[in-house]
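Please, structure for the following, as tokens.
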Amino acid sequence: MREIITTLARYAILLFIVAMWLPTGTGAQEASTAPSSANSVHAEHEYYARLVSLRPSDTNSWYRLGIAKYKLRQYKEAVASFSACLELDSTHQKARFNRGVCYAAAGRNTDAFIDFNYCLGVDSLDLDARLNRAGCFFRAGNFERARQDIALVTELSPSSIAAWALSAAIHARMGKYKKAIHDYSICLAYDRKDISSLNSRGVSYLRLGLIDSAVADFKRVQALDSSYSMAQSNLALAYIQSKNYEQAEVYVNALLDELSHEAYAWEIAGDYSWMRRRYAESALRYTRGIRLQHSKDLFRKRAYSYLNIDSLNRAVDDFTTVLSYDSTDYTIWYNRGLVFMRKSDFASARRDFAHVIDMKPTYSLAWYYKGLALAREGEAQEGIRSITRAIELDTLHAEYFFNRSMLYLGLQDTSAANSDLHKTVAVNSSHIQAWYQLGILSAVGGEWKVAKKHLSKSIELSEGAFADALFARAQVHAELHKEKAALRDIQDFLNVASESHPNRNQAEELQSVLTSK
């Protein structure tokens, strides 16, 4: 039995999961406006920049300079100004809050979380800080903790559109579209012209197959803002789902040059043949444009088109051409690295992510993927070091801990793996694979009751659809001499597992053994 559990553990080591999040936040709080002579944000910036040069110990000027820089989207510089303010007055809560907002805008989720958490330590009823902390949890994939913060905000401030919108986004991400529709409807009850909520509610209607309701929402968006191209994409999507391809064609043709919107429509529709056809057509159009004029932007767009029809070699060629125009664009190095990962060219991927790190050493995702590439090249220890650096930059990313734990398992360091798995579920309590791996490790160690608890959590989160966890729990139940429970798990496993599942024969053999007792 232990050999089977150990085999499961080894099988799962190969799993690498990538998490994605969306940014959110309420924005910077401006204490007051600049003097009337400062008629623009730039003038405001210059005014307070002069003040701090003349009076470097003036906390208010540093704070207002930070606000001006935030308005100019100079987030790194704004962080520096707010930090200078806090060095002079560590109790300046508005500076701390707004520094958190800037950290979040700059993608530094962990630093943002620390500032918002500090604000809540001083005032637990600071709803702006609580909502922004919920945004940190949301970006890290910890939906339960985000919902706890949002619940308090909506209880104390039921008209907070930002809170209801974030709650709706979480429900949509979890596949709970009826609840998402409910929350977006509350947003619209407070602001009938909230285009974002209207569009997002339409998408949730689509997910439930309520085409007429979706079309009505998207058309309302168009009536409010005819330039909102996402509504056109979604209308195309709605008509695809209703098989009205002629009407869908009208909207899609208007969006051929906006690949992100077009991809969104075709991909959500699940009509991948249409999606691939559109990307192929887009690639051809960009090719015609390139024949007339060699443009970095055209090569970049064609690279993404090739990427989405799995023409990986051509995508690499076009990304390489873009880099010949501008080798300082770290996003192109990063995306080419991701393509190399898909091609299993891990040496090239590692080099590209190293270039990203040279240009942007605080970019945690580059450290993370460099670590994965190193591990796939057989350099597990170097991979661990790289992922550890990613964790130092972003401690709220559950996948960093999870994949480092897989590398530790590969090195037979079960203690370190166990520690990282516990950190994974601490950051994201809904991480199905982490709970499963904790169950496997506990089973390997003979801690059957603990193993059962962890595996049950994994099964609960997967709504009974995780075949590997069902089979592992059946074995644990057998070790605990709970034959009826083991047989129920085996039957559930056989119902959800594919015919080619590697554990199917073993499950049937165990079923026979238990039935004969």
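Residues 2-27, 30-38, 256-275 have pLDDT under 50 and may be disordered. Residues 25 and 132 are 5 Å apart (CA to CA).
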